[in-house]
Design goal:
Blueprint: E1 2-3, H1 14-21, H2 34-47, E2 51-55, H3 58-69, E3 75-79, H4 83-86, H5 91-94, E4 99-103, H6 112-118, E5 129-135, H7 148-160, E6 164-169, H8 172-179, H9 183-187, E7 192-196, E8 207-211, H10 213-225, H11 234-246, H12 251-265, E9 272-273, E10 280-284, H13 292-301, E11 304-305, E12 307-308, E13 313-317, H14 324-338
Parallel strand pairs: 1-11, 3-4, 3-5, 5-6, 6-7
Antiparallel strand pairs: 2-8, 7-8, 9-10, 10-13, 12-13
Helix pairs in contact: 1-11, 2-11, 3-10, 12-14
Bound molecules: pyridoxal-5'-phosphate.
The site of pyridoxal-5'-phosphate has 12 residues, from α3.
């Protein structure tokens, strides 16, 4: 099966498995795990933040960020398609008691003007606008990259109005590799930022949330409350360190493979392919007369899997386990299904 469902499908390489198995470990909850400490040092330096905390997942990182910034009744402003609204089990409401103010905009990004219009003037009647969160790259937005100038404007406006800013950096390193804008340059604009190691970076577990020393001290309280404190987590952090050493620059290969996939699939007259900026290809299958679900069923029968995103949209994602050969084979099969072959 050529699984293009998501970059979460990557499996640890042999070398990564060795790094995991050989990691020096201690009790993470007591700050005694040297490999976790090393990872946090690396991420703090990479992001230019004061402190960081190791977490089992990006979802926990996003939710702890919301918990740090918001009190019950406060409002979180993010794109309508944001992971934090759509794929975290309603935790913004369930855990933080916060409200959601979804903004529209192309490719998972909103305009600065939309943010300006959404920030509420302080009044007794209204919820408090409290946090702005953006994704870099945008997930449901097709792996699109926020231009630095637009992030600066969004973060600047948030600051001007006394709002906190959070960067969902599940795929931040994809943006860094695609644009050359450093992770620290991004992170400087935000109060909190997280990196996920289980997406393009190809580790089986782990995320790091970074921010000021005060915020991260408080994040530790939430990590404990949520059951996110761990023991010999150096075995997890060892995979993440290996990913930082070996899997960052190669994200450029994933991006090249995604462009190749888009080019080949785009040759079918009935498939319309979205703009590829990083490792995601969005394919609209409407003109084939098949629903996205039926199209995907036919793909799966032939050994290719995509992710159904809407009634007529499929997402295909490239990652560590998907090389140019897999891309060519997947494209041929996709074009065959599109033309009823
Ligand atoms: C995957 C993802 C998350 C959540 O990360 P997990 O490690 O899967 O919990 C958050 N935000 C975005 C944009 C993601 O793609």
């Amino acid at each position: 099966m050529i699984d293009l469902y998501s970059d979460t499908k990557s499996r640890p390489t042999e070398a990564m498995r060795k790094a995991i198995a050989g990691a020096v470990v201690g009790d993470e909850q007591q700050n005694e795990d040297p490999t976790v400490a090393k990872l946090l040092e690396r991420v703090v330096a990479l992001l230019g933040k004061e402190a960081a905390v190791f977490l089992p997942s990006g979802t926990m990182a996003n939710e702890i960020a919301v918990l740090l910034h918001c009190r019950p009744g406060d409002e979180v402003i993010a794109h309508r398609d944001a992971h934090v609204f759509n794929f975290e089990g309603g935790a913004v409401a369930a855990l933080a008691g916060a409200m959601i103010r979804p903004l529209d905009g192309a490719a998972g990004m909103f305009e600065v003007e939309s943010l300006a219009a959404a920030i509420r003037p302080r009044a007794r009647l209204t919820p408090k606008s409290r946090l702005v969160s953006i994704e870099q790259t945008t997930n449901l937005g097709g792996g699109a990259v926020w231009p630095l100038a637009r992030i600066e404007a969004v973060a600047g406006l948030a600051r001007e109005h006394g709002l906190a800013a959070h960067l969902d950096g599940a795929r931040l390193m994809n943006a860094v590799v695609a644009t050359g804008v450093s992770a620290a340059r991004h992170a400087a604009l935000f109060d909190t930022v997280f990196l996920d190691f289980t997406k393009g970076l190809g580790a089986p577990f782990g995320a790091v949330l970074a921010g000021s020393a005060d915020l991260i001290a408080e994040a530790w309280e939430w990590k404990q409350r949520l059951g996110g404190s761990m023991r010999q987590a150096g075995m997890m952090a060892g995979g993440c360190l290996h990913a930082l050493d070996h899997h960052v620059e190669r994200l450029a290969d994933d991006h090249a493979n995604a462009r190749l996939l888009a080019e080949l699939v785009g040759e079918a007259a009935t498939l319309s392919v979205g703009r590829v900026e990083t490792n995601m290809v969005y394919v609209n299958v409407e003109a084939t007369g098949l629903s996205a679900a039926e199209f995907n069923r036919r793909l799966i029968e032939r050994g290719v899997r995509a992710c159904v995103i809407g009634p007529a949209r499929l997402r295909m994602v490239t990652y560590l386990d998907i090389g140019a050969d897999e891309v060519r084979r997947a494209a041929r099969i996709t074009n065959d299904v599109a033309s009823g072959r």
